[in-house]
Amino acid sequence: MNSKISPQEIIEKYSREAPVNLAGIANELGVTLLEENLGTQVAGMIKKDPEKGGKSGFVIYVNSSDNPRRQRFTIAHELAHFMLHRELIGDGIQEDALYRGGFTDEIEKQANRLAASILMPFKLLQNIAPTAGNIGDLAKKLGVSEAALKIRLSK
Ligand SMILES: [Zn+2]
Q1: Which residues have a Cβ under 8 Å from the Cβ of 147 and sit 6 or more positions away?
Q2: How far, in Å, is the centroid of ligand 1 from the Cα of 33?
């Protein structure tokens, strides 16, 4: 683990294959990923946990009842908070289904933007888009929703 790795370095390093290896990124950051049934109102959580947390001391919980692509977005969003807002997380935050974790809208937007960059790096899009077929195929390959991909491609 290298705790000094920057979001840009992470994105660069993990932009070579689709779907982006989120477990690899979490491992690199020293964050533990766990799946748990969180009901219908909670997408995910990131918590300080000296026992279960990895080298960073943080655990990300993702809702096992969400579909895999949504789970990937949740993990990327929480990893983004970890990279950008670690000092604001305190003992932990819980995100509702719209990814509101008690932060300001601007902070949540920052996390969503970084999450999109992690899941759909432009370099990777350039590499795989020409042979991916239609937008549905491309979204499937990346493990993201078509809606998320369309927003990303409009940038
Ligand atoms: Zn959030």
Answers
A1: none
A2: 16
